[in-house]
Every structure is written in C-alpha cells, then in structure tokens.
Design brief:
Elements (H helix, E strand, L loop, with lengths): L18 E5 L3 H7 L4 H22 L3 E8 L7 H17 L1 H6 L3 E5 L7 H14 L6 E8 L1 H17 L10 H6 L15 E4 L18 E4 L9 H13 L8
Parallel strand pairs: 1-2, 1-5, 2-4, 3-4, 5-6
The structure holds farnesyl diphosphate.
Family: Belongs to the UPP synthase family.
Cofactor: Mg(2+)
EC number: 2.5.1.-
Amino acid sequence: MFKLRRRQEEVRMDKIPHHIAIIMDGNGRWAKKRMKPRVLGHKAGMDALQDVTISASKLGVRVLTVYAFSTENWSRPKEEVKFIMHLPVEFFDKYVPELHKNNVRIQVIGEHNRLPKETLDALERAKELTKHNSGLVLNFALNYGGRAEITNAVKLIAQEVLDARLNPGDITEDIISDYLMTNNLPYLYRDPDLIIRTSGEIRLSNFLPWQSAYSELYFTKTLWPDFGSEDLHQAIIEYNRRQRRFGGI
Ligand code: FPP
C-alpha cells in the first residue's frame, strides 16, 4: 500500500508582496491563556516580530509596517501603556543589532508628540543606526491613527492652497499620498499589497485606511505571539492565489 502525498504548496518567489502590513493582535489573550500578566504577551509579541521580520527580509519583502500602538490604545491601564512604551528601548538593545546585521532599516510613523522621551530616543537611535541599510524597511506605526493621518494631510494641503502653492484642481491621489505619513517609504511601496491581522478579529481598526484601498486582506485566528515564519509563508501562499485586478478585469 502506498500513500499519495499532497505536494506542499510553496511561496512563489516571483510573486512576493512588496509591502506587508500587520495588525499584531492577541498578545493579551495569549498571556491570559497561560495565566500570565498581559504585558508578557507583548514581550512574546516582540519575539514574534523579530522572527517575522527576519523571515520577511529573507523572502525579499521590501516593507513591513507593523501596528504597534494605536491612538486608541492610550485608554488601556496606565501600567500597560507604560510597559508598551518601554518596549522600543528593550527592542533597541536586544533586537536591533540582529536586524542591522540583516540590512534592515527601521522607520516610524505616527504622532510622536505624546510619546515619552525614552521611547522617542530609542526609535531615533534605531533609525540613525540603520539609515544606510538597503534591505527590508521595518516601519513601526506607533501612536498611529488613520483618520487623524488623513485629517492632518487635508490641513497641510489646505495650507498649500491658501499660500497659493497649489491649485485645488491640481490635487491628485499622488499628491494626497505625498502628505500621508507613509511618504517616508520608497515611492513604489507606500501602499501595502497584503494586510495581515492575527487573533481572529476581522476589521482594520483605523490602520492605513487610504493606503489599504487595494490591499489583499488576510485574517488568521493565530494569536500574534504564536505567529511565526510558517504562518507568514501561509499568508503569502494565500496572497499568491488571489488575482489582483485593481478594478480592471
Ligand atoms: C495588541 O494585542 C497588541 C498591542 C497593542 C501591542 C503590540 C506590540 C508589540 C507586539 C510589540 C511591538 C514592539 C515594539 C518595539 C514597539 P492586545 O493587547 O490587544 O491583545 P488582546 O486583544 O488579546 O487583548
């Protein structure tokens, strides 16, 4: 007797999404399942992020944008917010050296006026250290909210019009995109090709509302700290199966 083994599907290296964005959800539930404090879930989430970043970089992904803290997350218990704000400091010491070796460049989007100084300093150091790296861009969305981002872009564009530097009739989608926070990314890769959300929630929660207009969406029940390179491969395999038509036929 012999078994017919299904050939395992593999990632198509010629169809790797250039920009992947991830809503890293489920850290709290992961910790609760293990009767641990929620913050340990965030710590485990940071390990998962490191693994996924290195895997994505090996696959040739150009940009990985991760939702690390939303403008709504301030309503969490003070101690938890404090802990999350300290993560970039730990991240810099423990994780950035390996990322730097892998040619990863760190970038940040979000409104940073409310972030503690030590958080900002750690991010600045990571950006500075990796600024000449030409590999994957790891783009942290920290204190990020999509509607606030669009509102801010509208204000800036309105000011350009008031100052007679721009005609309302000349405003294009490309111009709007230039005023969004993702203008820190390489021009061709500003919009995510694939958005992943973990932990079974099926919504985008104010994450990249403009940029996600044509993104493929992938939802998985896996909690973020359990998400690893194998799960990333599965998400890309699913992406490979989709036909992206951008409104065409
Ligand atoms: C959502 O899970 C996760 C967060 C709000 C924080 C995510 C942060 C990290 C994974 C670490 C990022 C690293 C740096 C360097 C900033 P949740 O707490 O909402 O989980 P729950 O829905 O199960 O409660």
